[in-house]
Each structure stands twice: as structure tokens, then as C-alpha cells.
Amino acid sequence: MTQLINNLYNDEAGFIVSAELVLVATIAVLGMVVGLSEVAFNVNQELEDVGSAFGSINQNFHYNGTAGHKGGIAGSKYNDEWDQCDDSCDVSCDVAPTGESY
Question: Where do the TM regions start and end (predicted)?
């Protein structure tokens, strides 16, 4: 049994293939990290665009009241005011990280 373990320990037949696989896997992981960073940045930009589109919808509405011989109903009016973050480009992903304040 020890002879088998020593033979397996000293066998170097797959060493080159393993080293190549480690190199290729490392390059692939680094490429995926850079790619996912770009995906995250672009997803944030698209979500910010969607939020800006919802914020720019004109929400003003009103309807007139009606009145007849035996009754009437009043109308209603709503005026949408400008809110903070209604503008586009409020989210910035290019800000440098800041340290904690104590």
C-alpha cells in the first residue's frame, strides 16, 4: 500500500496540464470580475434611467364637478410638485470610496 502511495506522490504525468488549467482558470476569473464590474455599473445606470422616467411623469390631474337640479358633486385637483431626485443623473457610480469617520 505504501508503494502505491509513493508512486502516486512521485507521478508528474499530469503536472503540465494542471498548471495550464490553473493559468486559464485564473485568466477567466479575472476577466469575469472585470466584466461583472461593468455589468453592475450599467445596471445601476439603467435603473437610474428608469427611476428618472417615473419621476418625470406628469402626475397632475383634475376633474370638474357636476351639478344638476337636485344635487351636485365637487371636482378635484392634484398638482405634482418637484421632488428631490426627480432629475436624471442623480446616481453616480464613479465616486471614490471614503473612509469611516469616528
Answer: 15-36
- pTM summary value: 0.45
| pLDDT, tens digit, 9 for 90 and up, residues 4-42 | 888 888 887 766 677 788 889 999 999 999 899 889 888
Residue with cell 486559464: 24
SS3 65: coil
* 63: Cα within 13 Å, side-chain hemisphere: 4
CB 61 within 8 A of CB 80: no
C-alpha cell at 22: 490553473
In angstroms, the CA 4 to CA 11 distance is 11
Where does the chain have alpha helices with state H? 2-10, 15-55
